[in-house]
Each structure stands twice: as C-alpha cells, then as structure tokens.
Design goal:
Elements: H1 13-32, H2 36-49, E1 53-54, H3 55-61, E2 70-75, E3 79-84, E4 94-100, E5 105-116, E6 119-127, E7 140-147, E8 153-158, H4 178-181, H5 185-188, E9 196-199, H6 211-224, E10 234-240, E11 245-247, E12 253-256, H7 259-274, E13 281-287, H8 304-315, H9 321-329, E14 332-335, E15 339-340, E16 362-365, E17 369-370, H10 381-393, E18 398-400, E19 410-411, H11 415-419, E20 424-429, E21 431-432, E22 440-443, H12 444-459
Helix pairs in contact: 1-12, 7-12
Length: 461
C-alpha cells in the first residue's frame, strides 16, 4: 500500500509557509543545541515561558494539581519530563511522547590533552554507533561543561561563531594511503585515532618539554579559567561545527547534526505546549543515553520517570501503590524516534513495501530490533488500529516501516523499556537519511506531520 506524498496537502503558498515556518524554528533549535545539556536547558526555558511550573516548586508549596495544570521536572540537567494534567485521574493512564536528546558524537577523555611532534591534541572516546571514518577532515566544535572543585561551572562552546576557531581529526593523504585503503571500512579509522588537533604554536618557556601543550594550557587558563586537572570533572563533546542548513533547491529538507533524535524531541515538546485541554494527562519525556543503551541515572532505565509520576499522583490525591501501577499499565506511548529513510543510492538493504520515504509523513515502526525482532517492542494490532483512526481522523499523513530488510541489521529505541512497564507502545517518528553520520537529512513536511500527529495523539480520547 503506497502512501500519498504529504506535500500535496500544502500546494497553497500560505499552507506551505506554515510548514516552512515550523521547520525554521526547528532548524534554529538544532543549530544552537548540540548536546543533551543544551537541549534540556532549551526545553526548560521554553516550558517556563509557556507557563509550566517546576515540580519541585509545586511540591514545596504543597499545591494540589488539577486538570489543566502544567508542570515539568528536570533530572541532572540532562533529562526532562513535562506534564499537562488531564481531566481523568492519572490512574486511568497517560498519553506519553518519549524521545531522546543525546546524539552520536566524540567525547573528550578525562585526561585528554597531550603533545606529539609539536602538535597539541585532545584524546577522545566515541559515543554511540558511528562510522568512525566519517568524523575525519570535518570542522568540529567543542560543547560542554567544566565543573571545578569549588562547584563553579565553566560552559564551553567553541567553534560555532564566525570568528571562533574550529578543530578537527586529520586523515591520511591519498598519496600515502595504499595500505589504509585496503582495510575494512570499520578499520580505516580506529577509535583510538580520533584525536582532535587544537594547536601548534610553542609557548615562550625554553625549559618546557611540551611547549605547545603549555601554550594551549595558558590560553585555556586565560580565556576560560580552566586548568589541566579540571578536565577530570568535565563533560566536553566534540560535534560538527556550523548551523543546520536548508537542503535542496526547493529547500524541502534540512541537513544538520543531531536529527536523531532531536527531530522527534522538538515536535514532541511543541505538541505538549499546544495541547493544554486534554482528557488524559499528557507527557513529553525527553531522555538521555539512548544511543548507548538507555543506561545510567539519566537514561530511560533510570527511575526518574516513575518517581516523577509518583510525585504527581500524590499531588492529585492518588496515593496508593495500586493507583500508581494502574497509571503505568493504562498508559499509551509513542516512542518518538527516527526511522531509516529509503535511499535510492542504497536500495539493496531496504524492502520497498515496508520502508519509510521522504515526504510521506510520520513513520510508525510496529517493531524494531534485529533479525528475529530481537530486543524489540512489538506493538499490538489493537494499538496500531487505534492509532490509525487517530491519525486518519486528524488528517495526518503517516506511513509504516521496518528498519531495513530482514537480517540486514537492526536497531532499538526506548520503546521496550516503557513496554516493560506494561504500557501500550509503538515507535513513531521521522525518516532520516545519513542516520548517525555527522550531517543527517530530514524532510520538512515529515517534521510537520510528526508534530500534527503528536498533537492528535495527546488530544485523543
């Protein structure tokens, strides 16, 4: 069954402008927020402006929550949940949009700075699933925080302004690359070779053994108040430098870093901001660490979401453990994560009848996983049917997909973790080209249809 191209709904210039305006807001967000900390800070500020109250302030004030109230909670500056309290009791379930705000990247090691042959370098450890060879010869930026022993925080963002320096990982010149070119793609660039070049001028001290490193440390101290030991308590991410850009003569697409999964996180938040009069409590859950298994205190496996829901229930007068368990089991979830777009340059890994295509709207993946659906949340037929009706009633363009041909590979999302809480869950997001590459591509109309679909889901009865 072939789905119609969603652009056909937006032939009038005024209709097309709505799509492009929404996409422009997203493009700016993507350009300015390249780490999970930056994304969390952005969404928290947006929530404040939209009238959401911080949950800890509501708890401190002892204020009871009622239908229409808007609250949010932040976990360790890397994870956030926003709620609009519904007309029905929480024990009757929630409508949850769950996305992740971390993306593949390079992280600086705890002792990263060294000098080799009069070059100052930073040692890295890649984060998430990457083709390592894609990260060489690119202009890179440094984003993150340095936390000093006294608790003060130095925010790092270098490489984005027009007058900022950029950084990068070098590659072997083609003239001397005969041996390198014989290697498998997974070995052409090794993980330990993803070292970032950051300087080459030696310092003035003649007695210094590593004078280039010493000069870099002097710059770091003078301009950022950072000493070498401060790297021990730093989280600095190496990401592609530069803004997300319109892509194609018709400007129908966006190329940028971090579409996976911020292209779902952004419309998920915008949807809950829009949906203020809801039957069931609406939730936008934005988590960290999905790219490395959803582990740790800010990943989906943590107790943050469950603990936050328990606090909400106490503020709405539902205090029993049984009511809490009912709230979880009665909930419905769209695991808002990206899907692989069909690429006509690489058709052999896709099965055309069950692939996602640019321009055909929101993508539903009934299951992900690998090979025999291993590690997958497999949504029930009843839930899929329910969502079909919700989308059709709202005239949302949607399509269904698998993550490539059977046995061609696979992947996972946070869906199974929420499914383990006995919720109804399905993966639902935007198709992406170049997924996990430094520069990914999405369709603007798919982004907008995702937003419309998320609104329809939150407002469904």
């Amino acid at each position: 069954m072939e789905r119609t191209n969603a652009w056909k709904k937006y032939t009038k210039e005024e209709d097309k402008k709505v799509v492009f305006d929404f996409a422009e807001g997203y493009r700016k967000f993507l350009s300015e927020n390249k780490t999970e900390r930056e994304c969390c800070s952005f969404f928290e500020e947006q929530a404040r402006v939209a009238g959401f109250q911080k949950l800890e302030d509501v708890i401190a004030a002892g204020t009871a929550l009622k239908a229409g109230d808007k609250v949010y909670a932040v976990n360790k500056k890397k994870e956030m949940a926003a709620f609009v309290i519904g007309k029905r009791p929480l024990s009757e379930g929630m409508h949850i949009l769950g996305a992740h705000i971390d993306s593949p990247r390079l992280d600086l090691k705890q002792n990263p700075l060294y000098e080799d042959t009069d070059m100052a370098m930073l040692d890295t450890h890649y984060y998430g699933g990457v083709k390592k060879y894609q990260w060489v010869t690119l202009p890179l930026a440094l984003h993150g925080v340095v936390v000093k022993k006294d608790g003060s925080v130095v925010n790092v963002n270098v490489g984005e302004k027009a007058d900022d320096p950029v950084f990068g990982v070098s590659d072997l010149l083609i003239h001397l690359a005969d041996e390198q070119m014989e290697k498998k793609a997974s070995k052409v660039v090794e993980g330990e070779d993803l070292n970032v070049l950051i300087g080459s001028i030696p310092g003035a001290g003649e007695e210094e053994k590593e004078r280039v490193k010493a000069n870099i440390l002097e710059i770091l101290c003078k301009e950022y108040d950072i000493e070498e030991e401060d790297f021990l308590s730093a989280e600095i991410e190496v990401v592609p430098a530069g803004e997300a850009r319109d892509y194609g003569f018709d400007r129908s697409m966006i190329m940028g870093y971090g579409h996976d999964d911020r292209v779902c996180a952004y419309p998920s938040y915008k949807a809950i901001e829009q949906s203020t009069d809801v039957e069931y409590t609406s939730v936008c859950l934005l988590v960290d660490k999905e790219e490395i298994g959803s582990v740790g205190a800010t990943g989906m496996h943590s107790r943050f979401f469950e603990n936050t829901v328990a606090e909400l229930m106490a503020l709405t007068g539902e205090t029993s453990d049984l009511q809490f368990r009912r709230a979880l089991t009665n909930s419905k979830v769209l695991s808002s994560d990206v899907s692989a777009a069909f690429d006509p340059n690489y058709p052999s890994v896709m099965e055309k009848k069950n692939a996602a295509y640019f321009g055909r709207g929101l993508v539903f993946n009934k299951y992900t996983g690998a090979r025999g659906k291993s590690g997958s949340n497999d949504a029930s037929a009843e839930y899929v049917a329910e969502l079909r009706k919700v989308m059709d009633d709202a005239d949302v363009s949607f399509q269904t997909s698998e993550l490539g041909k059977v046995d061609a590979g696979g992947g996972g999302t946070i869906a199974y973790i929420l499914g383990n809480l006995d919720m109804q869950v399905i993966d639902s997001g935007v198709a992406v080209l170049n997924m996990h590459a430094p520069w990914e591509i999405i369709s603007k109309v798919d982004l907008y249809e995702a937003y419309r679909g998320y609104v329809a889901f939150l407002e469904s009865k």
